[in-house]
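Protocol step 4 of 5: obtain the predicted structure for the target chain.
Materials: sequence only (see below). No template structures provided, no constraints applied. The aim of this step is simply to have a reference model before the mutagenesis design in step 5. Sequence pasted as it appears in the construct record:
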Amino acid sequence: MTTIQSKGISRRGWLRWTAMLGAAAALPGRVWAAVARPEAAFGATALDDALAALGDAPQVHEGIQFTTPDIAENGAVVPIRVEVDSEALPNVSKVSVLVEMNPNPLAASFDIPPGTEVYIETRVKVAQTCTLYAVVEADGQLYMQSRETKVTLGGCGG
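Step 4 output (structure tokens):
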């Protein structure tokens, strides 16, 4: 009987190394995301506290187009859209979405890379009929638009 000696890595060894490299590659992204997250704003339980954690009091700006449904049948999946006119409001660095009556008002926060067209479309949970806010940070200042959405079936356990 002939025995073949392999001079390379075994299949099991290759799989082990691939798994370790994949885990190592994912780690820096998770660490970076945890550092960048505004913990105080996400942990706030009142709208005023969340806004204060984001920065100075935002001013209403017409360069922000904030779209929400007038009536949401299911508060667990309320579609929203935020668009910013880059000529009216240049140098946007962050967009946050707040839901007034939620247990934690800050629903989402997006970092915007320089030179990027600001267009965000997502879904948020809304506990009950209330006002939703789109807060935009541009040149170190906060600007906002708000819309009221009526919810027929609450999305936060209600």
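Step 4 remarks: The two ends are 72 Å apart (CA to CA). The mean pLDDT is 87.
Proceed to step 5.
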